[in-house]
């Protein structure tokens, strides 16, 4: 039975100060519809891994996802590729890969850096992730957005979510922010970091079908078609199954944490897609018919939560090993310049490679919170450290570690930073996580 919690939606701020002409105060009672040991906000690969790992540890887990499917950029974003090392990331990713292999919809394994990515069918991945979550008895809320938190002394007691049933409260003992943009931490008023002066650039994935002959599809007078090779933005051509390709186009200079900026990025990306496609159709005479864009633009960097430790570029270059290391990264520093649309990097290409490095548990614990962990691209790291660690394989490993820690904290009736990190590390390794 649902219970009532007065003022949950704005438990931190409503009526704290008189209204001004530019503000409006509002509050309402919201039913506590859900209760869990661990609540995971955001169903990308980090969120899925966190939920699965916590559930395996015996926790009652609820996962909130704003779209109809989980997988984040890998599915809704159309980025059908696991980047980095897919072996040794832990049992959650192992199970995902095994199921994808059963469907025969993923490339054969090659170790990193012999292959720096592993292509798959993103439509099948969405189904595989759904079934793995249900197999582990994770409670799923799809088409549901995170809205706000109720905060008591640095501890999140409830969060507000909103789906078709309207605003409802979710009460949990531990929370994991896997939103990618630090939504939970930002609503709680916790410290976050953003790219200065700009975030790492976004990319739009679009899809083309091969046909025998294709006339240009962009009508005269629409947008600003690309006419020369020199005018092309960074465009990567990806495989997308028989008779099809995906095009990934760099879209810089937008902020994923700002409503109007993100809206402008989506508009710009779809226009830019047709401008680029026109070049391939009209100039290069490609028989490519437009099949559409992904439902959301691919975001590399939104906001990063300031944790008990901020992983640095220096740590990566040194291949640092931490006493509380619970995840591992190997991918190169994939930091494209944020202020142009060409294939340019922040660093020289000779400076991009890094040795294997560890990600500490402290970088997955929000500095200002009592019971908030994070995983994925909103974890605590410098921008260039993020450019390596943000890839799906490392995000999966971070998620698994955060899920293990949150379940352990629940069972021990304590908070994540009070855990012995060696216990978390031991479980990560027992579950197939290769840390060295």
* Mean of pLDDT: 94
Strands, total number: 18
Biggest sheet details: 8 strands, mixed
The CATH homologous superfamily of the largest domain corresponds to FAD/NAD(P)-binding domain
Query: What share of residues is helical?
Result: 25-40%
What is the CATH topology classification name of the largest domain?
FAD/NAD(P)-binding domain
Q: Class by helix and strand content?
A: alpha+beta
Task: Show unreliable segments.
Answer: 1-16
CATH class identity of the largest domain: Alpha Beta
In short:
It contains 9 helices and 18 strands. 25% of the residues lie in helices and 23% in strands.
Report on this structure.
The protein has 436 residues and is an alpha+beta fold. It folds into two domains: 33-196 and 301-430, FAD/NAD(P)-binding domain; 202-293, no CATH class. Helices cover 25% and strands 23% of the residues. It is built from nine helices and 18 strands. It has helices at residues 45-56, 91-102, 122-135, 183-188, 259-283, 313-317, 383-389, 392-411, 421-430, and strands spanning 3-5, 30-41, 61-64, 81-83, 117-119, 139-141, 145-152, 155-163, 166-177, 192-193, 202-210, 235-239, 244-251, 288-293, 304-305, 325-329, 357-360, 372-374. Strands 1, 2, 3, 6, 7, 8, 9 and 18 form an eight-stranded mixed sheet that branches. It has a four-stranded antiparallel sheet with strand order 12-13-11-14. Strands 4-5 form a two-stranded antiparallel ribbon. A hairpin with a 2-residue loop joins strand 8 and strand 9. Helix 1 (45-56) packs parallel to helix 8 and helix 8 packs across helix 9 (421-430). It is globular and about 65 Å long.
């Amino acid at each position: 039975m649902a219970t009532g919690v007065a003022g949950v939606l704005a438990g931190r701020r409503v009526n704290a100060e008189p209204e001004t002409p530019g503000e409006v105060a509002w509050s309402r009672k919201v039913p506590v519809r859900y209760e869990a040991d661990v609540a995971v906000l955001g169903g990308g690969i980090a969120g899925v891994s966190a939920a699965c790992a916590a559930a395996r540890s015996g926790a009652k887990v609820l996962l909130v996802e704003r779209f109809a499917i989980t997988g984040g950029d890998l599915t809704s974003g159309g980025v059908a590729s696991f980047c980095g090392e897919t072996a040794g990331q832990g049992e959650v990713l192992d199970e995902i890969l095994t199921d994808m292999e059963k469907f025969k919809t993923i490339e054969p394994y090659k170790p990193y850096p012999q292959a720096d990515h592993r292509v798959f069918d993103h439509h099948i991945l969405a189904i595989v992730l759904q079934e793995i979550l249900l197999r582990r008895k994770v409670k799923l809320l799809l088409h549901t957005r995170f809205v706000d938190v109720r905060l008591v002394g640095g501890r999140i007691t409830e969060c507000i979510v909103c789906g078709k049933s309207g605003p409802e409260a979710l009460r949990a003992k531990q929370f994991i922010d896997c939103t990618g943009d630090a939504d939970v931490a930002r609503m709680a008023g916790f410290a976050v970091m953003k790219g200065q002066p700009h975030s790492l650039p976004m990319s739009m994935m679009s899809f083309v079908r091969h046909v025998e002959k294709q006339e240009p599809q962009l009508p005269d007078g629409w947008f600003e078609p690309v006419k020369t090779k020199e005018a092309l933005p960074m465009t990567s051509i990806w495989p997308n199954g028989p008779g099809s390709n995906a095009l990934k186009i760099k879209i810089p200079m937008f902020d994923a944490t700002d409503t109007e900026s993100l809206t402008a990025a989506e508009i710009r990306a779809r226009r830019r897609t047709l401008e680029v496609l026109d070049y391939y159709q009209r100039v290069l005479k490609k028989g490519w018919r437009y099949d559409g864009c992904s439902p959301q633009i691919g975001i590399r960097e939104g906001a990063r939560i300031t944790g008990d430790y901020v992983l640095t570029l220096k740590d990566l270059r040194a291949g640092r090993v931490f006493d509380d290391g619970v995840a591992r990264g190997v991918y190169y520093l994939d930091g494209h310049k944020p202020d142009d649309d060409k294939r340019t990097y922040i660093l020289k290409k000779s400076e991009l490679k890094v040795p294997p490095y560890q990600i500490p548990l402290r970088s997955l614990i929000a500095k200002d919170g009592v019971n908030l962990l994070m995983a994925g691209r909103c974890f605590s790291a410098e921008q260039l450290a993020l450019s390596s660690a943000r890839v799906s394989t490392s995000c999966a490993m971070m998620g698994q570690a955060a899920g293990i820690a949150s379940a352990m904290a629940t069972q021990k009736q304590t908070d994540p930073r009070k855990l012995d990190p060696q216990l978390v590390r031991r479980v990560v390794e027992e579950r197939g996580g290769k840390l060295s």
